[in-house]
Write a sequence for this structure.
Protein backbone atom coordinates (compact mmCIF):
# COMPACT_ATOMS: atom_id res chain seq x y z
CA UNK A 1 0.00 0.00 0.00
CA UNK A 2 2.70 2.39 1.07
CA UNK A 3 5.00 1.72 -1.87
CA UNK A 4 2.02 1.79 -4.17
CA UNK A 5 1.15 5.31 -3.02
CA UNK A 6 4.70 6.53 -3.49
CA UNK A 7 4.55 5.22 -7.02
CA UNK A 8 1.27 7.00 -7.60
CA UNK A 9 2.78 10.23 -6.33
CA UNK A 10 5.69 9.80 -8.74
CA UNK A 11 3.32 9.12 -11.62
CA UNK A 12 1.40 12.26 -10.81
CA UNK A 13 4.63 14.23 -10.79
CA UNK A 14 5.82 12.79 -14.08
CA UNK A 15 2.49 13.49 -15.77
CA UNK A 16 2.47 17.01 -14.32
CA UNK A 17 5.91 17.69 -15.79
CA UNK A 18 4.98 16.14 -19.14
CA UNK A 19 1.75 18.09 -19.45
CA UNK A 20 3.47 21.36 -18.51
CA UNK A 21 6.28 20.84 -20.99
CA UNK A 22 3.84 19.90 -23.74
CA UNK A 23 1.63 22.88 -22.91
CA UNK A 24 4.56 25.31 -23.04
CA UNK A 25 5.68 23.89 -26.39
CA UNK A 26 2.13 23.92 -27.75
CA UNK A 27 1.42 27.51 -26.63
CA UNK A 28 4.68 28.75 -28.04
CA UNK A 29 3.96 27.37 -31.47
CA UNK A 30 0.19 27.88 -31.68
CA UNK A 31 -0.82 30.97 -29.74
CA UNK A 32 -0.47 34.62 -30.75
CA UNK A 33 1.79 37.06 -28.98
CA UNK A 34 -0.99 38.50 -26.82
CA UNK A 35 -1.97 35.11 -25.42
CA UNK A 36 1.66 34.20 -24.79
CA UNK A 37 2.05 37.47 -22.92
CA UNK A 38 -0.82 36.53 -20.63
CA UNK A 39 0.54 33.02 -20.17
CA UNK A 40 3.90 34.51 -19.19
CA UNK A 41 2.17 36.65 -16.60
CA UNK A 42 0.23 33.68 -15.30
CA UNK A 43 3.42 31.59 -15.04
CA UNK A 44 5.21 34.30 -13.05
CA UNK A 45 2.24 34.78 -10.77
CA UNK A 46 2.06 31.02 -10.21
CA UNK A 47 5.63 31.20 -8.88
CA UNK A 48 4.69 34.09 -6.61
CA UNK A 49 1.35 32.68 -5.44
CA UNK A 50 2.66 29.19 -4.72
CA UNK A 51 5.56 30.55 -2.67
CA UNK A 52 3.45 33.20 -0.92
CA UNK A 53 1.01 30.43 -0.01
CA UNK A 54 3.83 28.53 1.71
CA UNK A 55 4.24 31.16 4.42
CA UNK A 56 0.66 32.50 4.51
CA UNK A 57 -1.38 29.38 3.93
CA UNK A 58 0.73 26.36 4.85
CA UNK A 59 2.58 27.86 7.83
CA UNK A 60 -0.30 30.16 8.73
CA UNK A 61 1.89 33.21 9.32
CA UNK A 62 -0.02 36.16 7.92
CA UNK A 63 2.52 38.25 6.05
CA UNK A 64 2.23 41.06 3.52
CA UNK A 65 5.71 41.12 2.04
CA UNK A 66 5.66 39.90 -1.60
CA UNK A 67 5.89 43.35 -3.16
CA UNK A 68 9.09 44.00 -1.19
CA UNK A 69 10.83 40.76 -2.18
CA UNK A 70 9.59 40.90 -5.76
CA UNK A 71 10.96 44.45 -6.01
CA UNK A 72 14.32 43.28 -4.67
CA UNK A 73 14.51 40.42 -7.15
CA UNK A 74 13.41 42.68 -10.00
CA UNK A 75 15.96 45.40 -9.24
CA UNK A 76 18.83 42.96 -8.71
CA UNK A 77 18.04 41.23 -11.99
CA UNK A 78 17.49 44.50 -13.84
CA UNK A 79 20.81 45.93 -12.69
CA UNK A 80 22.66 42.75 -13.58
CA UNK A 81 21.04 42.19 -16.96
CA UNK A 82 20.94 45.67 -18.46
CA UNK A 83 24.07 46.39 -20.46
CA UNK A 84 26.44 49.08 -19.11
CA UNK A 85 25.83 51.25 -22.19
CA UNK A 86 22.08 51.12 -21.73
CA UNK A 87 22.47 51.96 -18.07
CA UNK A 88 24.89 54.82 -18.79
CA UNK A 89 22.41 57.14 -20.46
CA UNK A 90 19.41 56.29 -18.23
CA UNK A 91 20.57 57.85 -15.00
CA UNK A 92 19.14 61.31 -15.47
CA UNK A 93 18.58 62.32 -11.85
CA UNK A 94 22.03 61.71 -10.41
CA UNK A 95 25.15 59.90 -11.54
CA UNK A 96 25.03 56.26 -10.55
CA UNK A 97 27.59 54.63 -8.28
CA UNK A 98 30.38 53.21 -10.45
CA UNK A 99 29.65 49.62 -9.40
CA UNK A 100 26.11 49.93 -10.73
CA UNK A 101 27.44 50.40 -14.25
CA UNK A 102 30.01 47.63 -14.15
CA UNK A 103 27.73 44.95 -12.67
CA UNK A 104 26.76 42.37 -15.22
CA UNK A 105 25.68 38.76 -15.17
CA UNK A 106 23.85 36.26 -17.29
CA UNK A 107 20.15 35.51 -16.87
CA UNK A 108 20.36 32.48 -14.59
CA UNK A 109 22.90 34.09 -12.26
CA UNK A 110 20.84 37.27 -12.14
CA UNK A 111 17.68 35.39 -11.19
CA UNK A 112 19.46 33.29 -8.57
CA UNK A 113 21.17 36.32 -7.06
CA UNK A 114 17.84 38.18 -6.89
CA UNK A 115 16.32 35.21 -5.09
CA UNK A 116 19.29 34.79 -2.77
CA UNK A 117 19.24 38.48 -1.90
CA UNK A 118 15.53 38.32 -1.01
CA UNK A 119 16.02 35.11 1.00
CA UNK A 120 18.90 36.64 2.98
CA UNK A 121 16.79 39.66 3.85
CA UNK A 122 13.95 37.33 4.86
CA UNK A 123 16.33 35.48 7.19
CA UNK A 124 17.36 38.79 8.79
CA UNK A 125 13.71 39.80 9.21
CA UNK A 126 12.69 36.48 10.73
CA UNK A 127 14.99 36.85 13.74
CA UNK A 128 13.13 39.75 15.33
CA UNK A 129 9.72 38.80 13.94
CA UNK A 130 9.37 35.09 14.73
CA UNK A 131 10.57 35.46 18.31
CA UNK A 132 7.20 36.94 19.15
CA UNK A 133 3.83 35.48 18.25
CA UNK A 134 0.77 37.04 16.76
CA UNK A 135 0.25 39.42 13.91
CA UNK A 136 3.58 41.20 14.23
CA UNK A 137 4.71 39.56 11.03
CA UNK A 138 1.91 41.24 9.09
CA UNK A 139 2.82 44.66 10.46
CA UNK A 140 6.57 44.26 10.00
CA UNK A 141 6.28 42.87 6.47
CA UNK A 142 3.79 45.57 5.49
CA UNK A 143 6.29 48.16 6.65
CA UNK A 144 9.08 46.29 4.90
CA UNK A 145 7.25 46.53 1.58
CA UNK A 146 6.86 50.27 1.98
CA UNK A 147 10.50 50.69 2.98
CA UNK A 148 11.68 48.86 -0.13
CA UNK A 149 9.51 51.03 -2.35
CA UNK A 150 10.71 54.22 -0.64
CA UNK A 151 14.32 53.05 -0.96
CA UNK A 152 13.75 52.41 -4.65
CA UNK A 153 12.58 56.00 -5.07
CA UNK A 154 15.14 57.65 -2.81
CA UNK A 155 18.38 55.90 -3.72
CA UNK A 156 18.57 57.06 -7.34
CA UNK A 157 22.31 56.33 -7.41
CA UNK A 158 21.36 52.65 -7.64
CA UNK A 159 17.74 52.46 -8.74
CA UNK A 160 17.42 55.59 -10.89
CA UNK A 161 14.63 56.79 -8.57
CA UNK A 162 11.12 57.02 -9.87
CA UNK A 163 12.27 56.79 -13.47
CA UNK A 164 13.11 53.17 -12.86
CA UNK A 165 15.35 51.01 -15.00
CA UNK A 166 14.55 50.63 -18.68
CA UNK A 167 15.91 48.70 -21.63
CA UNK A 168 16.24 45.50 -19.65
CA UNK A 169 16.88 42.78 -22.24
CA UNK A 170 13.78 40.67 -22.76
CA UNK A 171 15.14 37.31 -21.63
CA UNK A 172 11.88 35.98 -20.23
CA UNK A 173 9.89 33.75 -22.53
CA UNK A 174 7.45 30.97 -21.93
CA UNK A 175 10.20 28.38 -21.61
CA UNK A 176 11.81 30.31 -18.77
CA UNK A 177 8.68 31.45 -16.96
CA UNK A 178 6.82 28.16 -17.42
CA UNK A 179 9.89 26.08 -16.62
CA UNK A 180 10.69 27.98 -13.45
CA UNK A 181 7.02 27.92 -12.42
CA UNK A 182 7.14 24.15 -12.78
CA UNK A 183 10.31 23.93 -10.68
CA UNK A 184 8.83 26.24 -8.05
CA UNK A 185 5.69 24.11 -7.77
CA UNK A 186 7.72 20.90 -7.46
CA UNK A 187 10.10 22.38 -4.88
CA UNK A 188 7.26 23.77 -2.79
CA UNK A 189 5.33 20.48 -2.99
CA UNK A 190 8.44 18.52 -2.02
CA UNK A 191 8.87 20.77 1.00
CA UNK A 192 5.22 20.43 1.98
CA UNK A 193 5.40 16.63 1.68
CA UNK A 194 8.38 16.31 3.99
CA UNK A 195 8.94 16.65 7.72
CA UNK A 196 9.51 20.36 7.16
CA UNK A 197 6.09 20.80 5.57
CA UNK A 198 4.47 18.76 8.31
CA UNK A 199 6.16 20.98 10.89
CA UNK A 200 4.88 24.08 9.05
CA UNK A 201 1.32 22.75 9.07
CA UNK A 202 1.67 21.83 12.73
CA UNK A 203 2.72 25.42 13.48
CA UNK A 204 -0.38 26.64 11.67
CA UNK A 205 -2.73 24.27 13.49
CA UNK A 206 -1.36 24.62 17.01
CA UNK A 207 2.01 26.14 17.71
CA UNK A 208 2.17 25.10 21.39
CA UNK A 209 1.37 21.49 20.58
CA UNK A 210 3.99 21.51 17.83
CA UNK A 211 6.62 22.73 20.30
CA UNK A 212 5.52 20.07 22.77
CA UNK A 213 6.25 17.44 20.07
CA UNK A 214 9.83 18.66 19.71
CA UNK A 215 9.27 20.79 16.61
CA UNK A 216 11.55 23.80 16.39
CA UNK A 217 8.80 26.21 15.38
CA UNK A 218 11.17 29.13 14.84
CA UNK A 219 13.09 27.07 12.31
CA UNK A 220 9.93 25.91 10.54
CA UNK A 221 8.66 29.47 10.17
CA UNK A 222 12.03 30.81 9.05
CA UNK A 223 12.43 28.09 6.42
CA UNK A 224 8.97 28.81 5.03
CA UNK A 225 9.61 32.54 4.98
CA UNK A 226 13.03 32.27 3.31
CA UNK A 227 11.85 29.79 0.66
CA UNK A 228 8.93 32.05 -0.08
CA UNK A 229 11.21 35.08 -0.32
CA UNK A 230 13.62 33.23 -2.61
CA UNK A 231 10.97 32.40 -5.19
CA UNK A 232 9.45 35.86 -4.91
CA UNK A 233 12.88 37.27 -5.73
CA UNK A 234 13.26 34.92 -8.70
CA UNK A 235 9.76 35.81 -9.86
CA UNK A 236 10.65 39.49 -9.61
CA UNK A 237 13.68 38.92 -11.83
CA UNK A 238 11.53 37.13 -14.41
CA UNK A 239 9.01 39.95 -14.28
CA UNK A 240 11.74 42.56 -14.89
CA UNK A 241 13.04 40.59 -17.87
CA UNK A 242 9.50 40.27 -19.23
CA UNK A 243 8.39 43.88 -18.85
CA UNK A 244 11.82 45.25 -19.90
CA UNK A 245 11.28 48.26 -17.69
CA UNK A 246 10.56 48.55 -13.99
CA UNK A 247 9.80 51.44 -11.68
CA UNK A 248 8.95 51.70 -7.96
CA UNK A 249 5.25 52.21 -8.71
CA UNK A 250 4.98 48.67 -9.96
CA UNK A 251 5.73 47.30 -6.49
CA UNK A 252 3.20 49.10 -4.33
CA UNK A 253 0.89 47.39 -1.89
CA UNK A 254 -1.62 46.56 -4.62
CA UNK A 255 0.82 43.95 -5.90
CA UNK A 256 0.70 42.10 -2.57
CA UNK A 257 -3.04 42.58 -2.39
CA UNK A 258 -3.50 40.91 -5.75
CA UNK A 259 -1.48 37.90 -4.60
CA UNK A 260 -3.47 37.74 -1.39
CA UNK A 261 -6.70 37.63 -3.41
CA UNK A 262 -5.24 34.84 -5.52
CA UNK A 263 -4.27 32.57 -2.62
CA UNK A 264 -7.41 33.23 -0.59
CA UNK A 265 -9.56 32.58 -3.64
CA UNK A 266 -7.71 29.38 -4.45
CA UNK A 267 -7.80 28.18 -0.85
CA UNK A 268 -5.24 29.14 1.80
CA UNK A 269 -2.81 26.29 2.32
CA UNK A 270 -3.44 24.51 -0.98
CA UNK A 271 -0.79 24.62 -3.70
CA UNK A 272 -3.27 23.41 -6.27
CA UNK A 273 -5.54 26.20 -5.06
CA UNK A 274 -2.80 28.80 -5.53
CA UNK A 275 -2.38 27.70 -9.15
CA UNK A 276 -6.13 27.71 -9.82
CA UNK A 277 -6.44 31.09 -8.11
CA UNK A 278 -3.73 32.54 -10.34
CA UNK A 279 -5.39 31.28 -13.51
CA UNK A 280 -8.80 32.55 -12.37
CA UNK A 281 -7.61 36.00 -11.34
CA UNK A 282 -4.98 36.68 -13.99
CA UNK A 283 -6.73 34.88 -16.83
CA UNK A 284 -10.20 35.95 -15.76
CA UNK A 285 -9.44 39.63 -15.60
CA UNK A 286 -7.89 39.47 -19.09
CA UNK A 287 -10.72 37.39 -20.53
CA UNK A 288 -13.32 39.81 -19.19
CA UNK A 289 -11.84 42.73 -21.07
CA UNK A 290 -14.72 42.46 -23.57
CA UNK A 291 -16.98 43.86 -20.82
CA UNK A 292 -15.25 47.22 -21.11
CA UNK A 293 -16.13 47.51 -24.77
CA UNK A 294 -19.44 48.52 -26.38
CA UNK A 295 -21.83 45.58 -26.38
CA UNK A 296 -25.10 44.52 -27.83
CA UNK A 297 -27.08 43.50 -24.77
CA UNK A 298 -30.46 41.94 -25.60
CA UNK A 299 -31.00 44.41 -28.41
CA UNK A 300 -29.68 47.40 -26.46
CA UNK A 301 -26.48 48.97 -27.68
CA UNK A 302 -24.34 49.90 -24.68
CA UNK A 303 -21.48 52.35 -24.83
CA UNK A 304 -17.96 51.44 -23.76
CA UNK A 305 -17.74 51.26 -19.99
CA UNK A 306 -14.13 51.18 -18.86
CA UNK A 307 -13.87 49.44 -15.49
CA UNK A 308 -16.97 47.33 -16.03
CA UNK A 309 -14.87 44.19 -15.97
CA UNK A 310 -13.53 45.07 -12.52
CA UNK A 311 -17.12 45.40 -11.28
CA UNK A 312 -18.04 41.99 -12.65
CA UNK A 313 -14.75 40.54 -11.43
CA UNK A 314 -15.28 41.83 -7.90
CA UNK A 315 -18.83 40.47 -7.89
CA UNK A 316 -17.44 37.11 -8.93
CA UNK A 317 -14.95 37.23 -6.07
CA UNK A 318 -17.66 38.07 -3.56
CA UNK A 319 -19.83 35.22 -4.82
CA UNK A 320 -17.00 32.72 -4.59
CA UNK A 321 -16.11 33.83 -1.07
CA UNK A 322 -19.77 33.63 -0.03
CA UNK A 323 -20.34 30.13 -1.31
CA UNK A 324 -16.86 28.66 -0.88
CA UNK A 325 -15.60 30.36 2.23
CA UNK A 326 -12.33 28.43 2.28
CA UNK A 327 -11.65 29.23 -1.37
CA UNK A 328 -11.99 26.99 -4.37
CA UNK A 329 -9.85 24.17 -2.96
CA UNK A 330 -9.95 24.71 0.81
CA UNK A 331 -6.83 23.07 2.18
CA UNK A 332 -7.12 20.16 -0.25
CA UNK A 333 -4.71 19.29 -3.04
CA UNK A 334 -5.35 17.66 -6.37
CA UNK A 335 -4.17 14.33 -4.91
CA UNK A 336 -6.78 14.56 -2.13
CA UNK A 337 -9.50 15.00 -4.73
CA UNK A 338 -8.31 11.92 -6.61
CA UNK A 339 -8.34 9.89 -3.39
CA UNK A 340 -11.81 11.11 -2.58
CA UNK A 341 -13.12 10.15 -5.99
CA UNK A 342 -11.66 6.68 -5.74
CA UNK A 343 -13.25 6.21 -2.32
CA UNK A 344 -16.58 7.47 -3.62
CA UNK A 345 -16.43 5.11 -6.57
CA UNK A 346 -16.24 2.01 -4.38
CA UNK B 1 15.39 9.18 40.50
CA UNK B 2 14.48 10.05 36.95
CA UNK B 3 12.85 13.40 37.74
CA UNK B 4 13.59 15.62 40.68
CA UNK B 5 11.72 18.83 41.41
CA UNK B 6 13.96 20.76 43.74
CA UNK B 7 12.39 23.55 45.77
CA UNK B 8 10.55 25.06 42.80
CA UNK B 9 8.67 28.34 43.18
CA UNK B 10 6.73 30.07 40.42
CA UNK B 11 5.29 33.56 40.75
CA UNK B 12 3.02 35.27 38.24
CA UNK B 13 3.28 38.91 39.24
CA UNK B 14 2.10 38.89 42.83
CA UNK B 15 0.46 35.47 42.67
CA UNK B 16 2.42 32.47 43.83
CA UNK B 17 1.24 29.53 41.75
CA UNK B 18 3.74 27.08 43.20
CA UNK B 19 5.58 27.53 46.47
CA UNK B 20 8.81 25.74 47.35
CA UNK B 21 7.67 22.39 46.06
CA UNK B 22 9.99 19.42 45.96
CA UNK B 23 9.31 15.85 44.92
CA UNK B 24 11.00 13.02 43.07
CA UNK B 25 9.71 10.48 40.60
CA UNK B 26 11.39 7.07 40.50
CA UNK B 27 11.96 5.29 37.18
CA UNK B 28 8.98 3.23 35.88
CA UNK B 29 6.69 4.76 38.48
CA UNK B 30 3.19 6.06 37.79
CA UNK B 31 3.09 9.23 39.81
CA UNK B 32 -0.12 11.19 40.37
CA UNK B 33 -0.28 14.93 40.85
CA UNK B 34 -3.63 15.82 42.38
CA UNK B 35 -5.30 18.72 44.07
CA UNK B 36 -8.25 21.06 43.74
CA UNK B 37 -8.60 23.45 40.80
CA UNK B 38 -5.99 26.19 40.82
CA UNK B 39 -3.59 24.16 42.95
CA UNK B 40 -0.76 24.63 40.47
CA UNK B 41 -0.70 21.20 38.83
CA UNK B 42 -0.71 22.37 35.23
CA UNK B 43 1.76 25.10 36.15
CA UNK B 44 4.04 22.36 37.42
CA UNK B 45 3.68 20.53 34.08
CA UNK B 46 4.50 23.69 32.19
CA UNK B 47 7.61 24.16 34.30
CA UNK B 48 8.78 20.60 33.65
CA UNK B 49 8.21 20.94 29.88
CA UNK B 50 9.96 24.30 29.73
CA UNK B 51 6.93 26.45 28.86
CA UNK B 52 7.55 28.34 32.09
CA UNK B 53 10.87 29.08 33.72
CA UNK B 54 10.63 28.63 37.52
CA UNK B 55 11.14 31.77 39.61
CA UNK B 56 13.48 29.77 41.79
CA UNK B 57 14.50 26.13 42.19
CA UNK B 58 15.53 23.49 39.69
CA UNK B 59 14.04 20.74 37.60
CA UNK B 60 16.47 17.86 37.35
CA UNK B 61 15.87 15.16 34.74
CA UNK B 62 18.25 12.19 34.75
CA UNK B 63 20.81 14.15 36.82
CA UNK B 64 20.72 17.14 34.50
CA UNK B 65 19.21 20.54 35.26
CA UNK B 66 16.70 21.30 32.51
CA UNK B 67 14.93 24.43 33.74
CA UNK B 68 15.60 27.24 31.30
CA UNK B 69 15.87 24.98 28.26
CA UNK B 70 13.47 25.57 25.36
CA UNK B 71 10.43 23.22 25.25
CA UNK B 72 11.49 21.56 22.00
CA UNK B 73 14.92 20.77 23.48
CA UNK B 74 13.33 19.24 26.58
CA UNK B 75 11.22 16.95 24.37
CA UNK B 76 14.41 15.74 22.74
CA UNK B 77 15.82 14.90 26.19
CA UNK B 78 12.93 12.46 26.67
CA UNK B 79 9.96 14.25 28.25
CA UNK B 80 6.67 14.23 26.32
CA UNK B 81 3.26 15.52 27.30
CA UNK B 82 -0.43 15.58 26.47
CA UNK B 83 -2.75 18.50 27.04
CA UNK B 84 -5.72 18.99 29.34
CA UNK B 85 -7.97 19.89 26.41
CA UNK B 86 -7.10 17.82 23.37
CA UNK B 87 -4.77 19.67 21.01
CA UNK B 88 -4.36 17.59 17.89
CA UNK B 89 -3.37 19.16 14.59
CA UNK B 90 -6.81 19.66 13.17
CA UNK B 91 -6.06 19.83 9.45
CA UNK B 92 -3.84 16.74 9.46
CA UNK B 93 -4.49 13.02 9.27
CA UNK B 94 -3.99 10.75 12.26
CA UNK B 95 -0.79 9.41 10.69
CA UNK B 96 0.60 12.92 10.09
CA UNK B 97 -0.20 13.81 13.69
CA UNK B 98 1.91 10.88 14.86
CA UNK B 99 4.65 11.74 12.34
CA UNK B 100 5.03 15.18 13.95
CA UNK B 101 6.32 13.31 16.98
CA UNK B 102 9.06 11.88 14.75
CA UNK B 103 9.99 15.32 13.41
CA UNK B 104 13.34 15.55 15.18
CA UNK B 105 14.09 11.84 14.70
CA UNK B 106 14.01 11.95 10.89
CA UNK B 107 17.59 12.46 9.79
CA UNK B 108 17.49 14.42 6.56
CA UNK B 109 18.08 18.05 5.70
CA UNK B 110 16.04 20.72 3.98
CA UNK B 111 17.84 20.46 0.63
CA UNK B 112 17.65 16.66 0.77
CA UNK B 113 13.88 16.90 1.00
CA UNK B 114 13.71 19.30 -1.97
CA UNK B 115 15.69 17.06 -4.34
CA UNK B 116 14.23 13.85 -2.86
CA UNK B 117 17.63 12.48 -1.94
CA UNK B 118 17.66 8.68 -1.29
CA UNK B 119 18.15 9.31 2.40
CA UNK B 120 14.90 11.28 2.42
CA UNK B 121 13.02 8.30 1.04
CA UNK B 122 14.55 5.75 3.42
CA UNK B 123 14.07 8.00 6.44
CA UNK B 124 10.45 8.81 5.55
CA UNK B 125 9.79 5.09 5.12
CA UNK B 126 11.41 4.33 8.46
CA UNK B 127 9.42 6.89 10.46
CA UNK B 128 6.18 6.03 8.67
CA UNK B 129 6.64 2.37 9.57
CA UNK B 130 7.37 3.32 13.19
CA UNK B 131 4.32 5.57 13.30
CA UNK B 132 2.15 2.76 11.94
CA UNK B 133 3.57 0.45 14.62
CA UNK B 134 2.49 2.87 17.33
CA UNK B 135 -0.97 3.22 15.76
CA UNK B 136 -1.16 -0.55 15.57
CA UNK B 137 -0.30 -0.76 19.26
CA UNK B 138 -3.31 1.43 20.01
CA UNK B 139 -5.45 -0.58 17.58
CA UNK B 140 -5.97 2.42 15.35
CA UNK B 141 -4.03 1.63 12.18
CA UNK B 142 -7.28 1.49 10.20
CA UNK B 143 -7.85 5.15 11.08
CA UNK B 144 -4.40 6.29 9.94
CA UNK B 145 -5.66 8.31 6.97
CA UNK B 146 -8.70 9.79 8.67
CA UNK B 147 -8.60 13.39 9.77
CA UNK B 148 -7.74 13.50 13.47
CA UNK B 149 -10.65 15.83 14.29
CA UNK B 150 -13.17 13.41 12.77
CA UNK B 151 -12.40 10.80 15.44
CA UNK B 152 -14.42 10.26 18.61
CA UNK B 153 -13.33 11.95 21.81
CA UNK B 154 -11.88 8.80 23.32
CA UNK B 155 -9.97 8.02 20.12
CA UNK B 156 -8.59 11.55 19.98
CA UNK B 157 -7.28 11.10 23.53
CA UNK B 158 -5.52 7.94 22.40
CA UNK B 159 -4.04 9.68 19.36
CA UNK B 160 -2.68 12.37 21.65
CA UNK B 161 -0.98 9.77 23.84
CA UNK B 162 0.29 7.94 20.74
CA UNK B 163 1.69 11.21 19.38
CA UNK B 164 3.50 11.85 22.66
CA UNK B 165 4.92 8.30 22.58
CA UNK B 166 6.22 8.93 19.07
CA UNK B 167 8.80 11.34 20.50
CA UNK B 168 10.32 8.27 22.22
CA UNK B 169 10.05 9.63 25.76
CA UNK B 170 11.33 8.23 29.05
CA UNK B 171 8.93 10.39 31.02
CA UNK B 172 5.35 10.90 29.90
CA UNK B 173 3.28 13.73 31.37
CA UNK B 174 -0.47 13.25 31.09
CA UNK B 175 -2.66 16.24 31.91
CA UNK B 176 -6.08 14.91 32.97
CA UNK B 177 -6.11 12.00 30.52
CA UNK B 178 -9.49 10.71 31.71
CA UNK B 179 -11.29 14.07 31.58
CA UNK B 180 -14.58 13.81 29.71
CA UNK B 181 -14.44 10.02 29.40
CA UNK B 182 -17.15 7.61 30.49
CA UNK B 183 -16.33 4.90 33.07
CA UNK B 184 -15.60 2.16 30.52
CA UNK B 185 -13.36 4.46 28.45
CA UNK B 186 -11.58 5.50 31.66
CA UNK B 187 -10.96 1.88 32.55
CA UNK B 188 -9.62 1.13 29.06
CA UNK B 189 -7.32 4.14 29.31
CA UNK B 190 -5.97 2.93 32.64
CA UNK B 191 -5.14 -0.44 31.09
CA UNK B 192 -3.42 1.28 28.15
CA UNK B 193 -1.27 3.41 30.45
CA UNK B 194 -0.29 0.39 32.55
CA UNK B 195 0.56 -1.63 29.47
CA UNK B 196 2.44 1.20 27.75
CA UNK B 197 4.55 1.73 30.85
CA UNK B 198 5.94 -1.77 30.43
CA UNK B 199 6.10 -1.87 26.61
CA UNK B 200 7.61 1.59 26.14
CA UNK B 201 9.76 1.62 29.30
CA UNK B 202 7.96 4.66 30.62
CA UNK B 203 7.77 6.69 33.75
CA UNK B 204 4.39 8.41 33.97
CA UNK B 205 3.49 11.61 35.76
CA UNK B 206 -0.19 12.41 35.56
CA UNK B 207 -2.68 14.99 36.72
CA UNK B 208 -6.12 13.61 37.42
CA UNK B 209 -9.28 14.44 39.35
CA UNK B 210 -10.91 11.01 39.08
CA UNK B 211 -9.77 9.53 42.40
CA UNK B 212 -10.88 6.02 41.50
CA UNK B 213 -8.69 6.19 38.42
CA UNK B 214 -5.76 7.54 40.45
CA UNK B 215 -6.24 4.89 43.11
CA UNK B 216 -6.24 2.07 40.63
CA UNK B 217 -3.30 3.35 38.61
CA UNK B 218 -0.82 5.38 40.62
CA UNK B 219 2.02 4.03 42.72
CA UNK B 220 2.40 7.33 44.48
CA UNK B 221 0.60 10.66 44.64
CA UNK B 222 1.43 14.22 45.56
CA UNK B 223 -1.40 16.49 46.66
CA UNK B 224 -1.00 20.18 45.96
CA UNK B 225 -3.16 22.94 47.39
CA UNK B 226 -2.59 26.59 46.54
CA UNK B 227 0.90 25.79 45.33
CA UNK B 228 1.95 23.94 48.46
CA UNK B 229 2.50 20.23 49.01
CA UNK B 230 0.06 18.89 51.58
CA UNK B 231 0.52 15.18 51.11
CA UNK B 232 2.92 12.74 49.51
CA UNK B 233 2.50 8.98 49.61
CA UNK B 234 0.23 6.10 48.63
CA UNK B 235 -3.05 7.09 46.94
CA UNK B 236 -5.09 4.99 49.38
CA UNK B 237 -3.68 6.97 52.31
CA UNK B 238 -4.26 10.29 50.56
CA UNK B 239 -8.04 9.95 50.73
CA UNK B 240 -7.78 9.31 54.50
CA UNK B 241 -5.53 12.26 55.18
CA UNK B 242 -7.38 15.02 57.09
CA UNK B 243 -5.48 17.83 55.38
CA UNK B 244 -6.34 16.45 51.93
CA UNK B 245 -9.97 16.12 52.89
CA UNK B 246 -9.92 19.68 54.19
CA UNK B 247 -8.40 20.94 50.96
CA UNK B 248 -11.12 19.33 48.86
CA UNK B 249 -14.15 19.68 51.12
CA UNK B 250 -13.24 22.59 53.37
CA UNK B 251 -12.14 22.44 57.00
CA UNK B 252 -15.19 21.65 59.12
CA UNK B 253 -13.43 21.97 62.50
CA UNK B 254 -12.64 25.63 62.20
CA UNK B 255 -15.96 26.74 60.77
Amino acid sequence: MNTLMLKKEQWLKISFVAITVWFIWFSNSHFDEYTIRILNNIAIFIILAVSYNLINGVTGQFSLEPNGFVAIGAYVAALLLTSPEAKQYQYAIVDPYPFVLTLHANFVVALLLGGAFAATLAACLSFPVFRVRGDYLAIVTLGFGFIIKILAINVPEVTNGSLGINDIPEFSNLYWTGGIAMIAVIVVLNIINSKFGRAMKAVRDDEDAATAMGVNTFKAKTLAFCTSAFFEGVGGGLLAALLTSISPDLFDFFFTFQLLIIIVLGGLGSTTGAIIGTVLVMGGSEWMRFLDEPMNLLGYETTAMPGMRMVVFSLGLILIMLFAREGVMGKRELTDLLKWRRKGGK
Amino acid sequence: MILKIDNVTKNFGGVTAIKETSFSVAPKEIFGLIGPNGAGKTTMFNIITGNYVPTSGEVIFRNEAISGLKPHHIVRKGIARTFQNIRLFSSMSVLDNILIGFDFQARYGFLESIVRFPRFITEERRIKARAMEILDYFGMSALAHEKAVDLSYGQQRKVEIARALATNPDLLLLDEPAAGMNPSETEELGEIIKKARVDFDLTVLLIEHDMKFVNQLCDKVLVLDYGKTIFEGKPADAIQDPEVIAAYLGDFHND
Observations:
- The domain at 3-78+169-249 of chain B is CATH 3.40.50.300 (Rossmann fold).
